[in-house]
Write a sequence for this structure.
């Protein structure tokens, strides 16, 4: 894990963050009382090299078919939400914290930051803990440094050397056969093309050659997909671990390593770490309605804040997370007849663990209170072909969440860019729909299919600079903000 993620520098720590409890109540379950452990300074979005969207409330939106026809309540939302403000939070999550792997210290740092922001906005905020599996990570470094536009966190094999640091000159042995190795391979760090069916034989050959570490390079995926970093498993070595580090890099990292080696020889340092006995957290925040208190209907807006290995997670799903923070700022003082609740899920990337845990803890009476869940996952990509805003339902059927967003899109003049309700799970809306709660996932994706996700998806290239559009984030804020507020005003 990158040191800046696990141990944030003192310049990120703020000592003036103050919480303000708000009315309302959270449902029963196993919750950890909110205690400030760390607050990371926001710093603002001034350093972001990204254009700020600029249109008036009554202007026609980019990609819209006509000027908007807004309700008074829509105007309140559209005039107040700010993608630029949200990007300030995204800078903290994706650049200052970086990869946020479920249960590790970096994910907890992010959870504390999110909870502090919501506390300061006046919400009643709690962290909900749950156990997750061990993680095995590594960090690559070099002198002079590796290209700094990529994150160099990678996966480490749980069946190889952990909590260790080795350095060696880099040698590319390609397919990794014995004949591909130079005579002086001993003590080197070798780059080896990864073939799952041959991985243990490839490691055995490397050991026989006396190398210091194995860096597995994944096969390139078909565009626009790119392979993610991974923790190679070596089942045959489970009882007798390999004595050297074995790591798996992402496709983008692979190409940079080979480009660097083609330019000149260099030394690579591989630092592995085991993270065991882990606890991940959901961040939950709410404010009560004008009346009804603990029995009022609930409208939820949600996202997941964790990432995959090596991914700064600017769009997946830092964008959905900061959308929630910005809507929390705007909705905090608006009158509603429903409780407004925000759910920021931990460990989504490991199989929707956080949201499923949350739903499992809800008594049926609390499930019945939830009118709609607006799940936001990848809502700001700058990838040009991602021109359609998808309404994704786990059962493929329309519900209150999809209906309200479709209606908001019509009022904003944006309905030609909205998909019909489409069957797809694989995000946290699924956890709610599995138990009959109206929910949907909202996301920018390719025109033809929701499977068309941007190339930086799940990669070290998922950065603000390479993969975030402030314009699309602004439209997402308006669509979800108008829909959620309409639901909360008339639940």
């Amino acid at each position: 894990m990158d040191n800046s993620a696990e141990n944030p520098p003192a310049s990120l720590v703020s000592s003036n963050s103050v919480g303000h409890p708000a009315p309302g109540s959270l449902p029963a379950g196993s919750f950890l009382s909110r205690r400030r452990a760390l607050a990371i300074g926001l710093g603002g979005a001034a350093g972001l090299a990204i254009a700020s969207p600029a249109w008036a409330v009554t202007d026609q939106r980019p990609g819209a078919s006509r000027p908007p026809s807004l309700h008074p309540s829509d105007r309140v939302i559209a005039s107040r939400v700010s993608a630029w403000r949200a990007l300030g939070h995204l800078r903290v999550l994706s650049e200052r914290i970086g990869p946020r792997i479920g249960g590790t210290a970096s994910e907890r740092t992010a959870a504390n930051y999110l909870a502090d922001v919501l506390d300061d906005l006046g919400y009643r905020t709690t962290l909900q803990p749950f156990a997750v599996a061990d993680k095995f990570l590594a960090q690559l470094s070099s002198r002079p440094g590796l290209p700094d536009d990529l994150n160099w966190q990678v996966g480490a094999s749980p069946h190889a050397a952990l909590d260790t640091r080795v350095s060696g000159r880099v040698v590319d042995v390609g397919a990794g056969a014995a004949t591909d190795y130079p005579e002086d391979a001993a003590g080197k760090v070798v780059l080896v093309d990864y073939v799952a069916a041959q991985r243990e034989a490839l490691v055995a050959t490397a050991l026989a050659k006396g190398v210091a570490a194995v860096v597995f390079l994944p096969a390139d995926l078909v565009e626009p997909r790119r392979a993610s970093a991974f923790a190679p498993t070596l089942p045959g070595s489970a009882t007798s671990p390999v004595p050297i580090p074995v790591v798996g890099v992402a496709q983008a990292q692979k190409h940079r390593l080979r480009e660097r080696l083609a330019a000149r020889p260099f030394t690579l340092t591989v630092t592995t770490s085991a993270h065991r006995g882990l606890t991940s957290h959901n961040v939950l925040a709410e404010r009560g309605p004008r009346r009804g208190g603990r029995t009022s209907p609930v409208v939820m807006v949600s996202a997941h804040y964790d990432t995959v290995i090596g991914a700064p997670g600017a769009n997946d799903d830092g964008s959905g997370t900061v959308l929630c923070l910005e809507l929390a700022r705007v909705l905090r003082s608006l009158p509603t007849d429903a409780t407004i609740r925000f759910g920021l899920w931990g460990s989504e990337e490991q199989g929707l663990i956080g949201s499923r845990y949350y739903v499992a803890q809800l008594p049926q009476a609390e499930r019945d209170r939830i009118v709609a869940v607006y799940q936001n996952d990848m809502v700001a990509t700058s990838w040009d072909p991602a021109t359609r805003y998808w309404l994704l339902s786990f059962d493929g059927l329309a519900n209150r969440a999809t209906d309200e967003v479709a209606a908001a899109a019509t009022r904003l003049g944006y309905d030609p860019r909205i998909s019909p309700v489409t069957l797809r799970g694989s995000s946290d809306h699924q956890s709610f729909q599995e138990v009959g709660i109206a929910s949907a996932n909202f996301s920018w994706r390719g025109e033809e299919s929701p499977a068309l996700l941007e190339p930086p998806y799940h990669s070290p290239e998922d950065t603000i600079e390479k993969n975030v559009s402030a314009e699309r984030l602004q439209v997402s804020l308006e669509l979800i903000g108008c829909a959620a507020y309409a639901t909360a005003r008339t639940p």
Notes: The longest strand covers residues 278-287. DSSP finds 13 helices and 15 strands in the chain. The CA atoms of residues 102 and 347 lie 5 Å apart.
